Amino acid sequence: MLEQSIQELESGSQRRIQSASSLEELEAVRVEVLGRKGALDQFFKQMGKLPPDERSRAGKILNSCKQALEGALEARKQAFADAALRAKLDREWLDLTLPAPGPRRGHLHPITRIQRELEELFASLGFTVLDGPEVETEWRNFDALNIPLDHPARDMQDTFWLDGGNLLRTHTSPVQVRGMERLGPPLRMIAPGRVFRNESVDASHEHTFYQLEGMMIDRDVSVAHLLYFMKTLLTAIFKRDVTVRLRPGYFPFVEPGFELDIKCLICGGAGCPVCKQGGWVELLPCGLVNPNVLRMSGIDPEEWNGFAFGLGLTRLVMMRYAIDDIRQLQGGDVRFLEQF
Ligand code: PHE
After folding, report:
1. What was the pLDDT predicted at 46?
2. Which of 103, 129, 266, 312 is the most buried (most CB within 10 A)?
3. What value, to the nearest 5°, has the Cα angle with vertex 151 and ends 149 and 154?
């Protein structure tokens, strides 16, 4: 009798377990059948009243029934969990063909960009790009450029002097001297680089800025050659025809020396705040190389002559991008740099 009831309980419970449609239903079956005071428990209690030989037989049947139902419950629970996971994976899909976000790319500083553009331009005109050290000798920065001992540029105010008599170069012109020493005539060279002056810093003055020096030495070089190269240079920079004029300017290493102005690109010469109403903007100092300079670097001025110019790269970048404060260029402020 008992045996049959147990079998009925087991098969009935199995059906309920297999047809359960939720974890709650499963749990209800578990409590009812396997829980404390559940149906199986009742059978275990009845079993205690049986004679010993029947008791052990009933015990075996009860235990195997219990194990079978526990196993079935566990398997159904697992099936529910698997189905839930599958449903979740079906909902959230991953497109493995989508391009990944690339690494953030930096970009070149505007001064570096202009410098490289000009290097390419001059290389195409047969000029060699030379490099010089930022720590220079007094000889190459001043003496060999015919800058007399009492010239104001040597003043403690303008030059960062270093221990041992060397200095931080105040312009890129000492690379002219290096070019003449190393390569000799005929010579076409440019030298971009960083220069230093002991200035108090404000919106238009920095202690550190960039220049691009140029020098050409050959036979019968004239102001016409100088003008040709300067106009080519400026047209490349500003991407349009520019009108230039030369004014006399004094630099000990050139004779004659000039200040080259361009007709203001903003107002076309009519006068505006950029050209301070003058219609012209001072852009680059230049001139024919002073014979003394050639001689001091071992070049015979009877046979050779040349021109030289010094372009302010920092100034140029400021004009090209309408930057009104020079301190921004070296300030390292990412918000400023990200605009380029
Ligand atoms: N070296 C000069 C300066 O920094 C500029 C210059 C270069 C002038 C070459 C004439 C020729 O002021």
Report:
1. 86
2. 312
3. 80
Number of domains in the chain: 2
Q: For ligand 1, what atom is nearest to the CA of residue 214?
A: 9
246 near 232, Cβ under 8 Å? no
pLDDT band for position 77 (cuts 50, 70, 90): very high
pTM: 0.69
H or E stretch including 214? strand 208-218
Last residue of a domain, one of 66, 92, 118: 92
CATH label of the domain that carries residue 141: 3.30.930.10
Q: Is 212 helix (H, G, I), strand (E, B) or coil?
A: strand
Q: How far apart are CA 222 and CA 139, in angstroms?
A: 27
Dist. CA 272 → ligand 1 center (Å): 27
Contact 167, 198 (CB under 8 A): no
* Structural domain span for residue 26: 2-92
- Lookup: tokens for 281: 């903007």
Clarify whether residues 143 and 79 are in a common domain. no
104 occurs within a structural domain: no
The C-alpha atoms of residue 103 and residue 118 are separated, in whole angstroms, by 30
Atom 9 (ligand 1) nearest CA: 309
Same domain, 247 and 134: yes
Q: Contact 146/253 with Cβ under 8 angstroms? A: yes
Task: Kindly report the protein residue whose alpha carbon is nearest to atom 12 of ligand 1.
Answer: 171
C-beta separation of 260 from 285 below 8 A: yes
CA of 316 to the centre of ligand 1 (A): 15
Identify whether residues 124 and 12 lie together within a single domain: no
pLDDT tens, residue by residue, 84-141: 999 998 898 888 899 988 888 888 999 999 999 999 999 999 999 999 999 999 999 9
